[in-house]
């Protein structure tokens, strides 16, 4: 009887010890060197602790030309990222950098910029970026000195300025702007906060989305098709038996009490292996807090189990900062709701976790610490083999302290800062008021926090006036 192999997903993991049977796709393609036909091999795989990638290899038997390339195969981040790092010491030159094809790199002190899509994505260091620029500029200098001596002299001067950057005669600032959001600069002080690096996220423009291949349904369809679809929607009603993601329900078919107790299910793709799976969603109420939406995904293909929590209401008028003193096992059992915008800080360990690191989740204090440890292990796993002795010693010491804290052997003070006000920690008092180990501080958000949440551009009153004025002005023309 023939044995059917279990599905391993679109992007199987690349593992040296237990290597799966990876099958490469071979495509006959033209050689760009001799114009004859060569072979291109494509391999879809997943690098542990990093992301899905597509490895491409071309070889030509006629002229011997070969070429290797790697492209990201995972999802594009919802926002672009801008990373500004001040390079002061030799240790900063050794910072590892992951840059994508859409990354632009700028050195402020030299007014020098590498445009996006001018270089392929790579894993390198800050010094490696400078060396690559020097090699590129110096490549045609012998010919340039004969044909254009003035331009060659200017380039020699600029190369000398780049060499001085590696000697660190003065600090300089390296800025990486990536519209895909898939770039990264190593933090040599991890798990402590990096004082020399500033990371900011931004919404992409329509032109930047088009550059990444992201289009809305309105932009993809033509005006004629949209008019036909619009008329059909107005004239026809969608039957209930149509197999769609969101099905309309008739009025009073689901009373509110039954809807809150019902577990809804919809199809999605697994974030780990991209296989088809189901996500369960339920609306529930946390006592002394508010309604939340709990979503859980279980993948039968790779066994992944995830849970995520979304606030049922909108953004609160004020942000909230919650301080919890963890004294023993009773505090480890506290229920915790952490939203996606909430950041964590543990004072005794001098450890800070950003807002989007752990996502939104409903767990306990112990579960929160365990998830934070797993997240730090995964983020450090990509470069663990090449870390220096000092970094390994520091990380081992930190994980030892964190393990002792999870075991309840030391007292901790956890600070949760959520500018949306949608995070919550259970109080040990029956009436829901803060107990002696719980401190809740509400504050007004700054302009920068409102801007990051998109509140500065939000118009909640008379939002239809501008559209009416535009229609009138177009009619007058």
UniProtKB/TrEMBL annotation:
Its main location: other. SMART domains: Zpr1. GO terms for molecular function: translation initiation factor binding; zinc ion binding. GO terms for cellular component: Cajal body; Gemini of Cajal bodies; growth cone; nucleolus; perinuclear region of cytoplasm. It is found in: Cell projection, Axon; Cell projection, Growth cone; Cytoplasm, Perinuclear region; Nucleus, Cajal body. Residues 29-187, 268-427 form the Zinc finger ZPR1-type domain. This is Zinc finger protein ZPR1. It comes from Anopheles maculatus.
């Amino acid at each position: 009887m023939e044995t059917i192999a279990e599905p391993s997903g679109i992007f199987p993991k690349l593992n040296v010890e237990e290597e799966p049977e990876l099958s490469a796709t071979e495509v006959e393609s033209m050689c760009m060197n001799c114009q004859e036909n060569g072979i291109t091999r494509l391999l879809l795989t997943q690098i542990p602790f990093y992301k899905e990638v597509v490895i491409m290899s071309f070889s030509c038997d006629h002229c011997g030309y070969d070429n290797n390339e790697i492209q990201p195969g995972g999802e594009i981040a919802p926002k672009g990222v801008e990373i500004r790092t001040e390079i002061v010491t030799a240790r900063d030159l050794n910072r590892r950098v992951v840059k994508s094809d859409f990354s632009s790199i700028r050195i402020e002190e030299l007014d020098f910029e590498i445009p996006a899509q001018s270089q392929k994505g790579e894993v390198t260091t800050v010094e490696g970026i400078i060396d690559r620029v020097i090699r590129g500029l110096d490549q045609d200098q012998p010919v340039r000195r004969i044909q254009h001596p003035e331009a060659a002299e200017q380039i020699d001067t600029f190369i000398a300025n780049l060499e001085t950057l590696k000697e660190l005669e003065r600090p300089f600032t390296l800025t990486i702007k990536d519209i895909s959001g898939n770039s990264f600069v190593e933090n040599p002080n991890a798990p402590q906060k990096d004082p020399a690096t500033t990371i900011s996220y931004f919404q992409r423009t329509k032109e930047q989305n088009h550059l990444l291949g992201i289009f809305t349904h309105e932009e993809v369809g033509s005006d004629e098709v949209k008019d036909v679809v619009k008329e059909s929607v107005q004239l026809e009603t969608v039957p209930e038996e149509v197999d769609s993601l969101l099905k309309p329900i008739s009025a009073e078919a689901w009373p509110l009490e039954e809807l809150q107790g019902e577990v809804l299910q919809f199809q999605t793709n697994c974030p780990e292996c991209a296989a088809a799976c189901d996500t369960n969603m339920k609306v529930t109420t946390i006592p002394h807090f508010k309604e939340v939406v709990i979503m859980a995904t279980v993948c039968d293909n790779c066994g992944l189990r995830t849970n995520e929590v979304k606030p049922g209401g909108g953004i609160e008028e004020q942000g909230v900062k919650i301080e919890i003193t963890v004294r023993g096992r009773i505090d480890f059992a506290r229920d915790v709701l952490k939203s996606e915008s909430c950041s964590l800080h543990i004072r005794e360990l001098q450890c800070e976790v950003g807002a989007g690191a752990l996502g939104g989740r409903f767990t306990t204090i112990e579960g929160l610490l365990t998830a934070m440890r797993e997240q730090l292990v995964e983020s450090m796993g990509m470069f663990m083999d090449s870390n220096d002795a000092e970094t390994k010693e520091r990380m081992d010491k930190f994980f030892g302290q964190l393990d002792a804290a999870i075991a309840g052997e030391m007292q901790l003070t956890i600070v949760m800062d959520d500018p949306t006000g949608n995070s919550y920690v259970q109080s040990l008092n029956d009436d829901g008021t803060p107990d002696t180990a719980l401190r809740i501080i509400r504050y007004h958000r700054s302009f920068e926090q409102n801007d990051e949440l998109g509140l500065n551009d939000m118009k909640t009153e008379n939002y239809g006036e501008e559209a009416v004025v535009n229609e009138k002005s177009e009619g007058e023309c």
